[in-house]
Amino acid sequence: MPIRIGKDTIGLPEGVFVNASVGIAGKKEKEGPLGKYFDVAFNNDKLGMKTWEKAESELQNTAVRILLRKAAAAPESIDVIFAGDLLNQCISSTYGLRSLKIPLLGQFGACSTMAQTLAMAAIFTASGAALRAAAVTSSHFCTAERQFRLPIEYGGQRSPTAQWTVTGAGAALVSRTLSPVRINAVTVGRINDLKVKDAANMGAAMAPAAADTISRFLKDTNTKPTDYDLILTGDLGRVGSELLIKLLNRHGTDISPVHNDCGLMIYDIEGQDVHSGGSGCGCSASVFCSYIMQKLTKGELKNVLFAATGALMSPTASQQGESIPSIAHLISLTHS
Amino acid sequence: MPIRIGKDTIGLPEGVFVNASVGIAGKKEKEGPLGKYFDVAFNNDKLGMKTWEKAESELQNTAVRILLRKAAAAPESIDVIFAGDLLNQCISSTYGLRSLKIPLLGQFGACSTMAQTLAMAAIFTASGAALRAAAVTSSHFCTAERQFRLPIEYGGQRSPTAQWTVTGAGAALVSRTLSPVRINAVTVGRINDLKVKDAANMGAAMAPAAADTISRFLKDTNTKPTDYDLILTGDLGRVGSELLIKLLNRHGTDISPVHNDCGLMIYDIEGQDVHSGGSGCGCSASVFCSYIMQKLTKGELKNVLFAATGALMSPTASQQGESIPSIAHLISLTHS
């Protein structure tokens, strides 16, 4: 049964377990430092589909089908799936999951979606509302560019603070069945807004949310950064990671010895010309569900905080002069 | 503690309670049959804001502030808020709730969002993950027209099957504290798709999902339609309601004696020229959180199934030739 810990954290005393996970990615990601860790990495980002959006749906569908195979589970055995993505009305998720007929609770957390969906799956299974719950999310470079910025054919120039949206997806299955990776607690994020307006600097927009959630978790649990092997953010990238460390240091919390960021891990930052690093729901999803889960499963990582961040804006809001609010959700995992 | 009932339903044996609710609406809704039931109904749909999108955010912010006042609750006393809307990246919710600093789990269920957010709030409080949880959603005629169809200045003609997006919002507070309206169970929807492609006929697109979820709930609970005072759908409108009844009748389930639809209730269908009826997240939200909750509170309604439906498409998907999948989430409420 979930319990409240401190002001904002939800503890799962009996624990729930990530029984299986799948990380899949596209061509650029395959060529990056984590290429060999993905369950599947495609050579062509179209995935044989007619449009980029259908390709992104195919990423989600593929991730979940592989997940079900890994877990030897039929779709009918999954009580609920939590899914979301960056596209308007979350169409990657809808069309990607349509054929599987699993009860769906659509989630919107922008790039924080992997942590959010895992958190939801954890709470539902810990409470008995579901026996088995799945979590999935995706992003795609081309769908994101088309929707948030400009079609790639335009040849627009990217600023140094800009990030590269990952073409990738991650899926995970959670239940109370014992397995090596255990979810212990969840901290739900709050909207943070330090009035960053530069849509080409998402790292700066999102760092405040990460600082807020991480510090609230540490306070609630009365723990310190070095109690953990890794405090992993989703896609703050280079700029956002530096800012996160600064923001936390102002309050006497130094996470630098244990911090890493999926957006910095997924690409060779200089060699692949991704400016500030990777971004998108698929960034933390593909990295967490492959590389991180593999390390946690083997016990090479034992105690991890996974805090994915999302920038809660849209082009419409930016055009109306609004700033970019952000949110970060955190889950605490251990090798059990 | 939540329990599984049958294949797909989540039972809440100890019950959770809707301690307070607020329905607010705009001018057209104020002039409709339920005008006097709304907590607040505005004379001007701009709500003093500069843009339609900011006005819609103001609807959510207003709904939640009135909710907190009604419940004599400070924002800090709410452990989590579930919110979502129809706009790209759910910006109505983000900007509407930003100032309140309540931990947020963004939900996407299109027009099913009121049922979805209530379901989430119920499960979180039943499980102990939250002591108090809020649910809120909104829609706005002008933001929806701009995003999904055409700017209103264009003067486009609406077909007979088209529905009118409600300018309105609903918010509710859920906890285990006893009060007259109890949530007993939740059935999470599955994506349904009978290949309807006409974006001007959302009722037809969504009816299959409503039929699916309602029939699964009845089967899981071994109950029949006439066990309930009211089986209330969110915004099927005229066309969708007829289709729902037909679809269920094919399987020997007749809900016609007890069925009603918020989209048919909120407007004078002929007199206000809304063609097939009202639609949008705010349709079921404003009606349920005002009129229906008032009836349930007084015991004039005793046993209600509230099944809101959502059309999970976007203009991009339609432009790519896709059909319109739908989903329906159901909650079972009683006067306790």
Protein model, in words:
The structure is a homodimer of 336-residue chains. Chain A is α/β, with parallel strands linked by helices and 336 residues long. Chain A has two domains: 3-175, Peroxisomal Thiolase, Chain A, domain 1, CATH 3.40.47.40; 181-335, Peroxisomal Thiolase, Chain A, domain 1. In chain A, 34% of the residues lie in helices and 25% in strands. Chain A has ten helices and 14 strands. In chain A, the strands form two sheets. In chain A, strands 1, 2, 3, 4, 5, 6, 8, 9, 10, 11, 13 and 14 form a twelve-stranded mixed β-sheet that branches. A two-stranded parallel ribbon of chain A has the order 7-12. In chain A, a hairpin with a 3-residue loop joins strand 1 and strand 2. In chain A, helix 2 (52-70) packs across helix 3 (91-97) and helix 6 (202-221) packs across helix 7 (237-250). The longest helix of chain A has 20 residues, at 202-221. In chain A, 65% of the residues are buried. The mean pLDDT of chain A is 96. Chains A and B meet through helix 3, strand 5, helix 4 and helix 10 of A and helix 3, strand 5, helix 4 and helix 10 of B.
